[in-house]
Structures are given as C-alpha cells and as structure tokens.
C-alpha cells in the first residue's frame, strides 16, 4: 500500500491510506479519497485549509488502528527543516530515582494519540490550518551513560531550534529538560519557565550525582539558562527532606504555587497572573505528568497524592495562549504502572493542547 496526501497539487507521505484533497479557496472544502492498492473510493468531505500544512488522516475515513504510530498520525520526517513545530521523543529513564519505565513513554503516548482529532473542541483551535507540524522521531539516546545521553539531546535540539522549529517533546524522565534548555537558551537567551510538577527538581545532588531527574532546574540556574524572575512552579507537593522543600526556589526569585493552593479552584485566575509575569519574552513549558493526582495519572515513576486534576492541567496549558512559547515537554509517563493506558492518553491530550497554544495557531 502506498500512502500520500495531495493538497493543491503538492504530495506528502502519510500513513494508513492515501487522502487526495481537492480544495476550493472560497469555501475551503476538502474531498478525501482513500486509496488502497489499486482500489479507490471517495470517503467524504471536510472543511480544511487549502495551504500546504500537514493534515492527519481523519478517523472518519481512516481507521485509528491502521498505519504507523506517529504522533496524532502526522507525517514523519527525518529533520525539523521547514516545520513550525515538531514532535520529538526522548526515550530515557536512566535519570529516575524511583520506578523506571519512562523510556517507553514516547512510544505509548504516540499510540494513544490516535484518539485525537483535528480541532480543540472547546477553544476551537485549528493547529493543522495554522502551522506546519510533523513527527521527527526519537533522539538516539545512550541508555548506559546519562551524561552522554544529555550530550546527544543537546546536540540534537541545537539542530532542531536552529531551523526556527518549536520542539514539542515526549519524555522520557525529567532529566531531559536540562539539555533541551541548554540548546533553547543558546538560541533565545535565558528563558521564562512554566514548570508544572509535583516536585521542584532543584536538588543539587542525588546519590552523589549532579545530573538526574531531580536536578535539571538547579543545573539550569547554575548555567544561567533561566530568567529567574520569570519562573513559576505549579503543583508542588509531598513530603520533603527539609521543613521548607521550596526555600531554594523562592530564593532564586521563582514563584512557587503549591498544590494545596490549587485545591478546589479554577486555575484560570492564576494563569492570568502568570501571563503577566512572563511578558513578551521567550517561555518554555515543562509539564511532568506526576503533577496530576495519581488517581488520574498512575503511570509515572514518583507519584504524589493530592495533586492537580486534568481540568486544571488544561487550564494551565490553555492559559499559555499568547505567550512566546519556544518549546514544550511532557515527561515522566511510565506506561507499565497504568494498564489502562489512561496516563499516556492524558499525556497525548496535553501535548495536543500545547500545540494549540503555540504562536501563529488560529482559532475559530
């Protein structure tokens, strides 16, 4: 079976059949024609952009379970060249301090992402009519050497951001935020950070090591990668090694929003304040799935009770609309601890929402 998309006489590779689009500029109506082998059938029509964006095949016409599991069934390409945004996996868990398994997070998030459709139902965001996005696969990490893995990640992300592409990362444990931010800050300078997590990840050392999933933002501060006046940490909670587990964060100028401050309330007002704090400068969004209560996201390595709800997670991400986002990640999905797949499904939904709040995305 050969698969391709034709939009305005341009052809791109896709998975799960061929969709040949006939577009009308005034009405922006697309005709889907599915091709399998020598058989062709007209399957339906759908409004869609007539420009040269990548458009995933609709589950109305192509079965979700068919084809190769790319993110949202988007086309795969080897590099970020020509893309506004790219999904990229970093499959490591060698920085974890508790339960392993996050190396399989990207694979499972991609599989569950087939459930997602083209538009955000409530916000009416239309990413595939606005930006060119694709899945560029995984970083080839070194599972036996964490420092070498960080080097590989940093070098790969330098190439990604050099094209002007915004990386949307599928983790992997939270160690990966450190080398990613090294590459991002090389291009953009010190960035603001919206860090959603159960843990501050600002330890200086763990078991004698300075690099691990509990230390990335300490290393980022050490190297001047963050604009500390524009850093907010949301959802922090759990037992600590000292009476005030977040004293170091506050001393750097971070705004710390503990989970208890989020209980039983909407986070829309908080995000209005965060947008004001971030201003117009570059911002990186780092979302650890363990920020959510383990009742909603049990598939993670270091769960903490009494966390955020998925609704609050959406409010945080949607509250980033209008910011100068230069990168996002979703980390610490460890599929073995959630046999339902709901944690990976939640992660896929959160990544979709991240894509929807990127600069240049249109809304109906």
TrEMBL record:
Listed GO MF terms: agmatinase activity; guanidinobutyrase activity; metal ion binding
Gene Ontology terms: biological process: putrescine biosynthetic process from arginine, via agmatine
Superkingdom of origin organism: Eukaryota
Keywords: Hydrolase, Manganese, Metal-binding
Entry-linked InterPro entries: Agmatinase-rel (IPR005925), Ureohydrolase (IPR006035), Ureohydrolase_dom_sf (IPR023696), Ureohydrolase_Mn_BS (IPR020855)
Claim: Hydrolase is one of the keywords in the record: yes
Pfam hit, one: Arginase
Cofactor(s) it depends on: Mn(2+)
Family: Belongs to the arginase family. Agmatinase subfamily.
NCBIfam families hit by this protein: agmatinase
Identification of the protein by name: Agmatinase
Organism name: Culter alburnus
């Amino acid at each position: 079976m050969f698969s391709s998309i034709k939009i305005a006489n341009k052809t791109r590779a896709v998975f799960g059949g061929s969709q040949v689009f006939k577009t009308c500029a005034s009405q922006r109506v697309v005709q889907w024609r599915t091709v399998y082998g020598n058989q062709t059938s007209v399957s339906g029509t759908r409004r869609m952009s007539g420009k040269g964006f990548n458009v995933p095949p609709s589950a109305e016409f192509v079965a979700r379970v068919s084809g190769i599991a790319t993110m949202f069934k988007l086309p795969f390409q080897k590099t970020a060249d020509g893309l506004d945004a790219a999904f990229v996996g970093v499959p490591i868990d060698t920085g974890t301090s508790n339960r392993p398994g996050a190396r399989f997070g990207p694979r499972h998030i991609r599989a569950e992402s087939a459930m997602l459709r083209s538009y955000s139902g409530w916000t009416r965001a239309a990413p595939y009519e606005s930006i060119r996005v694709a899945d560029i696969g995984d970083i080839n990490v070194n599972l036996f050497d964490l420092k070498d893995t960080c080097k590989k990640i940093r070098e790969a992300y330098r190439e990604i951001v050099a094209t002007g592409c915004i990386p949307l990362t599928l983790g992997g444990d939270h160690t990966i935020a450190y080398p990613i931010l090294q590459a991002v800050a090389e291009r953009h300078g010190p960035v603001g950070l919206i860090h959603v997590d159960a843990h501050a990840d600002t330890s200086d050392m763990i078991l004698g090591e300075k690099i691990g999933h509990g230390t990335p933002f300490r290393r980022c501060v050490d190297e001047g990668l963050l604009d500390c006046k524009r850093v907010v940490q949301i959802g922090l909670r759990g037992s600590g090694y000292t009476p005030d587990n977040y004293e170091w964060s506050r001393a750097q100028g971070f705004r710390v929003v503990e989970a208890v401050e989020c209980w039983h309330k909407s986070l829309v007002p908080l995000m209005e304040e965060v947008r004001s704090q971030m201003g117009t400068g570059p911002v990186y969004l780092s979302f650890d799935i363990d920020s959510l209560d383990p009742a909603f996201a049990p598939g993670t390595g270091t769960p903490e009770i009494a966390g955020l709800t998925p609704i609050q997670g959406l409010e945080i991400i949607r509250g980033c609309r209008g910011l100068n986002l230069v990168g996002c990640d979703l980390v610490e999905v460890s599929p073995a601890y959630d046999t339902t797949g709901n944690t990976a499904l939640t992660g896929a939904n959160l990544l979709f929402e991240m894509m929807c709040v990127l600069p240049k995305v249109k809304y109906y």
